[in-house]
Amino acid sequence: MYKRLIFTILPIAVMGLIFYFSSQPYGEQDMRPSLSMYLPLDLLRPLLAPVSFTYHGEEVSLASHGIEGLVEFFIRKGAHISIFFLLMITAYGAFLVNTRWKKRTAAISALAVTVLYACVDEYHQSLTPDRTPYIGDVGLDSVGALIGLALLFAGNRRRK
Questions:
Q1: What is the pTM (predicted TM-score) of this model?
Q2: Which residues of 95-130 are buried (b: 16+ CB within 10 A; e: fewer)?
Q3: Could you give the CA distance from residue 47 to residue 28 in angstroms, rounded to a whole number?
Q4: Which pLDDT score, from 0 to 100, does residue 98 have?
Q5: Which residues pair with 6 in a beta bridge?
Q6: C-beta neighbour count of 16 within 10 angstroms
Q7: How far apart are the C-alpha atoms of 62 and 45, rounded to whole Å?
């Protein structure tokens, strides 16, 4: 009884966390002042100097973002991958515990729910001041979900 409840609440809690952070304008989430205050970011400068690519139509580099902005960019994108990885895993657990589906069906359903929620999250960001939706973020979210799926399949194969 409690196991089913806990496994049901976990993905809902992750979705709530995603919704909460997507509800905040960018200015409320700006980590740059804290990063420069608490971390010796200049040590990363030689490592990050050659980094340069385009994301959402903008150059992402040390020159365009500064050291704090570039580190923050990678933290934010890593958070996308991590939180949707977590959603995938918890949704899979919820489906396994609350249905009689086979592991493969539960995994594919969890992947579908996770990617669909990534799309809903980007739409939600379009309604939030100072936030912009971007299909590339859905791609990053999906990468997190696919990593979760791969680890689930690898874990299941290892147990066999």
A1: 0.92
A2: bbeeeeeeeeebbebbbebbbebbeebbebbeeeee
A3: 28
A4: 96
A5: none
A6: 11
A7: 8
Q: Which amino acid is at 9?
A: I
Which parts of the chain register pLDDT below 70?
Answer: 160
Q: Which residue has the tokens 């993905």?
A: 11
Phi and psi at 61, nearest 5°, equal -160, 175
Question: In a 3-state reduction of DSSP, which class is residue 69?
Answer: helix
Identify whether the C-beta of residue 87 lies closer than 8 Å to the C-beta of residue 146. Answer: no
CB 140 within 8 A of CB 80: yes
Q: Which pLDDT belongs to residue 7? A: 97
**End-to-end Cα distance, the chain:** 28
Cβ-Cβ contacts under 8 Å for 67 (sequence gap 6 or more): 36, 41, 42, 44, 45, 48
